């Protein structure tokens, strides 16, 4: 009889995290970078105090500073995360047991990823979402396909439901929401995951004390060089405007380092992909179809289903498709959106195509190995250029 060994799974997760952190510590040491572990606070634009212990502080004098403090989970009125039964993504990754029934507030990336994991581990999962669609930042066709597939896997969805409150009663959590007709709907489970987004970690850093300005959402305002309102101090990642993505922050970190070094770097934000790590995965880069419609853009569209791929049939991963959006006059690729097995890896080809302003025809003329998932990209490109797909 096959059984889930949850403690071993958690240990494996912890081991991978430790290996990654150890690798970063090694790189710091290798590159002769001093690391101070503690809470930093600005005293002035060139001075930061770091509380390394409860009764010990160290002072760092700087010429330049990069603020990269990241973000933390958000909540909503009426929902108080006790971190025991009403939890965030942080606690979800360290649960001592697999929930019998998990209520997920939020149908965005984090909610769907963790909901999908626990569904596969045997939990009954219900997702309660305020909007009428999932993953609102991605192309609407991806959200519809993800909804269809995850429903098929057993996850229940309640769209257009506004959560009013969540109450813990012993080992049970009751969530109250209102549907679009204003009718009260109750959900009950042993855990409630609050996944309504994240907010920038910009509090208690002394930012405003030295003149650094924040916007209404608590994000640090920066110029085109990612420099804050105080010269010599830069900000990157989740603390500034834009998608909260690790790879976006990485690009910005390199950008600022090269700027400080006197180089002239660039970032093309339109070429930074977004990925949803469910199974199947979803990924997109460039413009969505809704964005092109809003601009009255003259575009063409092409697509190709995974079920027509030999590689997908072999691995029994036939859900999903590749969708291409291109300029109708010039054929320049404007956006590529994928739902399916290995979408997170496939999107890399799309990023290269977008960054180098390739046309659909350019990619359609490139040989793609057979049998592979990547053939779906070639076929979708052919479909976008005069409906010339070979296998549909």
TrEMBL record:
GO process annotations (BP): 2-oxoglutarate metabolic process
Record domain FAD/NAD(P)-binding: where: 15-253
Keyword Flavoprotein appears in the UniProt entry: yes
PROSITE patterns, sorted: PUA
Gene Ontology molecular function: any one: dihydrolipoyl dehydrogenase (NADH) activity
Every Pyridine nucleotide-disulphide oxidoreductase dimerisation domain range: 272-380
SUPFAM superfamilies associated with the record: FAD/NAD(P)-binding domain, FAD/NAD-linked reductases, dimerisation (C-terminal) domain
GO annotation, cellular component aspect: cytoplasm
Cofactor(s) essential for the protein: FAD
Membrane-spanning ranges: none
Keyword set, alphabetical order: FAD, Flavoprotein, NAD, Oxidoreductase
Family: Belongs to the class-I pyridine nucleotide-disulfide oxidoreductase family.
Protein name per Swiss-Prot or TrEMBL: Dihydrolipoyl dehydrogenase
């Amino acid at each position: 009889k096959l059984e889930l060994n949850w403690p071993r799974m958690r240990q494996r997760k912890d081991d991978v995290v430790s290996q990654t952190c150890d690798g970063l510590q090694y790189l710091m040491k290798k590159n002769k970078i001093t690391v101070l572990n503690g809470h930093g606070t600005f005293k002035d634009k060139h001075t930061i105090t770091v509380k390394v212990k409860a009764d010990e502080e160290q002072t760092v004098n700087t010429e330049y500073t990069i603020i990269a403090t990241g973000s933390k989970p958000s909540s909503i009125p009426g929902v108080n995360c006790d971190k025991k039964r009403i939890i965030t993504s942080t606690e979800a990754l360290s649960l001592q047991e697999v929930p019998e029934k998990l209520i997920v507030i939020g149908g965005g990336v984090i909610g769907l990823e963790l909901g999908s994991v626990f569904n596969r581990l045997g939990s009954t999962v219900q997702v309660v979402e305020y909007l009428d669609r999932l993953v609102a930042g991605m192309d609407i066709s991806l959200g519809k396909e993800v909804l269809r597939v995850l429903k098929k896997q057993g996850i229940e969805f309640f769209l257009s439901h506004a959560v009013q409150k969540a109450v813990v009663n012993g080992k049970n959590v009751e969530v109250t929401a209102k549907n679009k007709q204003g009718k009260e709907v109750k959900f009950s489970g042993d855990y409630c995951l609050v996944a309504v987004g994240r907010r920038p970690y910009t509090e208690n850093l002394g930012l405003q004390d030295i003149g650094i300005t924040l916007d209404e959402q608590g994000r640090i305002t920066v110029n085109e060089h990612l420099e804050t309102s105080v010269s010599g101090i830069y900000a990157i990642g989740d603390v500034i405007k834009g998608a909260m993505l690790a790879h976006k922050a990485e690009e910005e970190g390199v950008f600022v380092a090269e700027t400080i070094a006197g180089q002239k770097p660039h970032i093309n934000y339109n070429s930074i992909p977004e990925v949803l790590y469910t199974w199947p995965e979803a990924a997109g880069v460039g413009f969505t179809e809704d964005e092109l419609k809003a601009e009255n853009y003259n575009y063409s569209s092409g697509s190709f289903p995974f079920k027509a791929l030999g590689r997908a049939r072999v691995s029994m991963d036939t859900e999903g498709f590749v969708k291409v959006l291109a300029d109708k006059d010039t054929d320049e690729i404007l956006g590529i959106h994928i739902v399916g097995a290995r979408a997170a890896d496939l999107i890399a080809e799309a990023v290269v195509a977008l960054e180098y302003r390739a046309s659909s025809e350019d990619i359609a003329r490139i040989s793609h190995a057979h049998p592979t998932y990547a053939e779906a990209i070639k076929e979708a490109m052919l479909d976008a250029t005069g409906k010339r797909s070979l296998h549909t």
